[in-house]
Design brief:
The protein has 66 residues and is mainly β. A hairpin with a 6-residue loop joins strand 1 and strand 2. The chain is built from one helix and five strands. The strands form two sheets. A three-stranded antiparallel beta sheet has the order 2-1-3.
C-alpha cells in the first residue's frame, strides 16, 4: 500500500446568508477518497464539496510519502 500526498479543497458555511468559504489542506491517502476521508475527520462539522488533487512534485522535487 503506497500513500500519496493530496491537496484537498472543501467549503464551510460562513454562518451568514452569503454562502460558503473555500478551504484547503494537505492530506495523505492511498487514493483520493481515502485522503478526503482522513481530512473529513478533522474538518469542521459542516464542511462539504470535498475534492482531492494528487501532488507529485513541489518546486521540481518528487514527493515520497513513507
Amino acid at each position: 500500500m503506497e500513500l500519496k500526498l493530496y491537496r484537498v479543497t472543501y467549503k464551510i458555511w460562513n454562518s451568514t446568508f452569503s454562502g460558503l468559504i473555500p478551504r484547503e489542506a494537505l492530506s495523505i491517502g492511498i487514493h483520493e477518497a481515502d485522503a478526503i476521508q482522513r481530512l473529513r475527520a478533522e474538518a469542521e462539522r459542516d464542511a462539504r464539496e470535498f475534492e482531492a488533487t494528487i501532488i507529485t512534485e513541489v518546486q521540481g522535487h518528487r514527493i515520497i510519502v513513507e
